[in-house]
Amino acid sequence: MSGTGGEPRDIVQRGLWYEEFDIGVRYLHRPGRTITEADNVLFTTLTMNTQALHLDAAFADALPPFHQRLVNSMFTLSTLVGLSVAQLTQGTIVANLGFSEIAFPKPLFHGDTLYAETVVTEKRESRSRPGEGIVTFAHTGRNQHGDIVATAIRKTLVRMRPDRDGG
């Protein structure tokens, strides 16, 4: 019920409209996501990535410098972006336009927790699609120790706030 005893009101979780993004704002996405062996093996096999560093414990254990399996970097990237969805783009994104400057300065391992943060670096109204704008995000993933494990720049097409008259 509402605070005044009237009819209940609905609040739908959503991302931000184009107008709500401000350049330079940093969003900390919580909770983080602890990566399991099952996550890594499932993603790796679903995507047909047969890299032994992800699948073969004996092979990976014998190789310096890590001596253990690495989490598939594409899973790390996917999870990094996924952690931002509820706070930034749930229901308001039209499309991902592209990724650039993707880097993995340190690996993730089974049992590590990935935390994500995003800074809005640019935005502009679309010249070809009225009612939509292009927002650029700089995503950073950190492990539970605060080490940066992934970075990516992502351009997205985002809806502008619908007008109150139903448009």
Shape: elongated
N-to-C span? 29 Å
Main sheet properties: 5 strands, antiparallel
CATH superfamily of the domain at 18-36 and 73-159: Hotdog Thioesterase
Report helical residue fraction. 10-25%
Q: Remind me, CATH topology of the domain at 18-36 and 73-159? A: Thiol Ester Dehydrase, Chain A
SSE succession = EHHHHEEEE
Low-confidence blocks of residues: none
The name of the CATH architecture of the domain at 18-36 and 73-159 is Roll
Order of strands, widest sheet: 1-3-4-5-2
Question: For the CA atoms, what is the radius of gyration?
Answer: 19 Å
Task: Supply database-style keywords.
167 residues, MaoC family dehydratase, MCH/BMMD, 4 helices, HotDog_dom_sf, Thiol Ester Dehydrase, Chain A, 5-stranded antiparallel β-sheet, alpha+beta, elongated, 21% helix
Describe, in plain words, how this protein is organized in 3D.
The protein is α+β, with helices and mostly antiparallel strands and 167 residues long. It has a domain at 18-36 and 73-159: Roll (Thiol Ester Dehydrase, Chain A). It is built from 4 helices and 5 strands. The chain has helices spanning 37-46, 52-55, 57-61, 73-88, and strands at residues 26-34, 93-103, 113-125, 132-142, 148-159. Strands 1-3-4-5-2 form a 5-stranded antiparallel β-sheet, covered by helices on one side. The chain starts with 25 loop residues before the first strand and ends in an 8-residue tail after the last strand. The model has no long low-confidence stretch (mean pLDDT 94).
